[in-house]
Structure formats: structure tokens, C-alpha cells
């Protein structure tokens, strides 16, 4: 059973930082395409970042501020978020898929497996 569980969300002020984690189990973590998405109130899903092997992609809105990484030994995905802005406020989800192409731009939401999300709130 594939499981993904996000943690690390919270409330911060503008220019603050947070690190999200996504603990996974039930599949060969290092061979899967992994991604971070977010959904702000009243809006659709937005792809934030993806990682597959050494290939990493970011949404333009987070380039230079967010960093996606993974620890294969811990089967855990991370999203380091710096210089946060109010417009980053959203529920953040991690996602996994065995198909490598899913990680390629554009950062679509075709992933087969999803976590339940963690809330990030940035206040001005």
C-alpha cells in the first residue's frame, strides 16, 4: 500500500521559512517521480516542484525560493521554502508516480498517489 504523509506546515510571516516533509512507504521511493503541489482557497492545483533522479523542475513562481530534495535512505521528500510570501498560502501536497514523464514540465497533476496535505499560511 502506497502511503504519503506530509508534515511541517504552519503559520509564518512574510520572508519566513518552512521545510515540508513527505514520509513515504509501500513502493520503491528512489525510482519514482515525486512532486509538490499546492492549492489555495478557491483555486485549482498548482504544480510547485518535481524531482526524478537528477532532474528537478520548479514553477516560475517559486524559483530561487523553494528547493525540492529527497532522502532515499529515509524514503522522504522535502520542500525547503524560503522568503515566503502571502501568495504562497495554500494546502501543500506531495505526490508520487512510477512514470518518469509525469515529472516533466509542465508540472501537471497526473500523479497516481497523493498525500492528504499540510497547510502553509503566510501573513504579511
Structure description:
Helices cover 0% and strands 52% of the residues. The mean pLDDT is 96. The protein has no helices and eleven strands. The protein has strands at 3-7, 10-13, 18-25, 33-39, 45-52, 55-58, 66-71, 76-81, 90-97, 113-114, 118-123. With 124 residues, it is mainly β. The strands form two sheets. Strands 2, 4, 5, 6, 9, 10 and 11 form a seven-stranded mixed beta sheet that branches.
Key terms for this structure?
single chain; 124 residues; mainly beta; 7-stranded mixed β-sheet; 4-stranded antiparallel β-sheet; 11 strands
Q: Give the N-terminus to C-terminus distance in angstroms.
A: 40 Å
The SSE order reads EEEEEEEEEEE
Gross morphology is globular
Rounded to the nearest angstrom, the radius of gyration is 13 Å
Largest sheet: 7 strands, mixed
What are the low-pLDDT stretches, counting only 5+ consecutive residues below 50? none
Strand count: 11
Mean pLDDT: 96
Structural class: mainly beta
Secondary structure: helix percent:
under 10%
User: Beta-sheet strand percentage?
Assistant: over 45%
Number of helices: 0
Give a brief description.
0% of the residues lie in helices and 52% in strands.
List the helices and strands and how they pair.
Elements lengths: L2 E5 L2 E4 L4 E8 L7 E7 L5 E8 L2 E4 L7 E6 L4 E6 L8 E8 L15 E2 L3 E6 L1
Parallel strand pairs: 2-11
Antiparallel strand pairs: 1-3, 3-8, 4-5, 4-9, 5-6, 7-8, 9-10, 9-11
Amino acid at each position: 500500500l502506497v502511503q504519503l504523509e506530509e508534515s511541517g506546515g504552519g503559520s509564518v510571516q512574510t520572508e519566513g521559512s518552512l521545510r515540508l516533509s513527505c514520509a513515504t512507504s509501500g513502493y520503491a521511493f528512489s525510482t519514482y517521480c515525486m512532486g509538490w503541489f499546492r492549492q489555495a482557497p478557491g483555486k485549482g492545483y498548482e504544480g510547485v516542484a518535481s524531482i526524478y533522479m537528477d532532474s528537478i523542475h520548479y514553477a516560475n513562481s517559486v524559483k530561487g525560493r523553494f528547493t525540492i530534495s529527497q532522502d532515499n535512505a529515509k524514503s522522504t521528500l522535502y520542500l525547503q521554502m524560503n522568503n515566503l510570501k502571502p501568495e504562497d498560502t495554500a494546502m501543500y501536497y506531495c505526490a508520487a508516480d512510477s512514470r518518469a514523464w509525469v515529472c516533466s514540465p509542465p508540472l501537471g497533476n497526473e500523479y497516481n498517489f497523493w498525500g492528504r496535505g499540510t497547510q502553509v499560511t503566510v501573513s504579511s
